[in-house]
Amino acid sequence: MRTLAASAGRRATGGAFAFLWVAVLSARGAEAGPPRQPATPVPFGAELDVPADTARLAQNPALRARLIGSPHGYFRFINVPFMSAVCRRVSSERGPLPIVTLHGDAHVEQYAVTELGRGLTDFDDSASGPATLDLVRFGVSIRLAAQQRGWAERADALFAAFLRGYRKALGDPNAVAPEPAWARRVQAGFDPDRLAGLARAEELMEFLPEHRELVDETSKATALAMLTRNSQLAPSYFRLKKAGVLRVGIGSALAAKYLVRIEGPSSTDDDDVLLEVKEVQDLADVSCMRSTPGPSRIMVGQARIAYQPFRLPGVLRVNGRTFWIHAWPLNYAELDLAKGPASPEELEEIVYDAGVQLGRGHPNESLRGEAAHLRRTLQKRLSEERLQEMVAELGAETVAAWERFKTSSPSP
Fold this sequence. Notes:
The structure is a single chain. The chain is an alpha+beta fold. The protein has 15 helices and 11 strands. It is globular.
């Protein structure tokens, strides 16, 4: 277990906001996300390519191995280039779908189960834009997932089930999908022992060395004020106990993110709380997305789309960089195609549920009349035939780009 135990303990005794934002934000300060779409347009077919010999991948052989491992793993890594590719196609459409609240990186392995519930999670790339972006990305994910699991002949039917759930929620914004069997099975296996859950989380933390303070007192005070105001909790609740670099994910594998263990409601260990601290990425390269700088787009996206919005939301700004903060559930399991689901029928239940969630969330605007108008417009303008065409085309292009990546990757 690699944590910042000794140094965190010394600072944690100092005061209510003795966070180790210092080490947290300086340990991997130069990291950036996956390659962005180049400013100069590239030919169709090559827009999803990632150079296999980049320094970033050379320094992260485990990540490169995951990209080589499957087309879906590669697909997860190229979200921004992929969404840019969808934008290029949307721009040529006569009547693209209206602007809605987007998940921004919707795929089947974003479907997760926690002790609080289930559904699509990870709203880091949430923004506004044509509904086509989420629908096509999830459709390609279904296609690649079905191929990976040996159910390629069911891919079109699975995408149809996803769209069926989406349309169901457009017609009834209170629609609820049946709980998928996979979600029930995973949740039944959760460990109620909080200390064991905290120990498992600490195993994900990478040791952080001592670092000089980079966060000024004003930034720390502002972040604490936001956390306490949003949560209505005392400052002592947020006293740091341990912290570490977090190494999970594929699309966000190169993003700066950290896991922090805080005091919680009392000084006993079994009610400690975990927070994730994650740098907000720039989506400016996705031409048909509307994204404001900072975390507000994430907060809006998860509030409108998530079945269970994040607890303890907050923001920290350091040297021109913005990090968003939220509670990390102790029992948390994302769908992993290498392990499940057990059958195409189980996958169909999951994608139908995801379709319902996006159908509820896309038009979930603050003004009720506007939401009703968006739902009617989406129902009228949604061309399933065109979406199927785009999914098939971009699915094939993703596999071709993955094949080129594999071929050009240096030998281990």
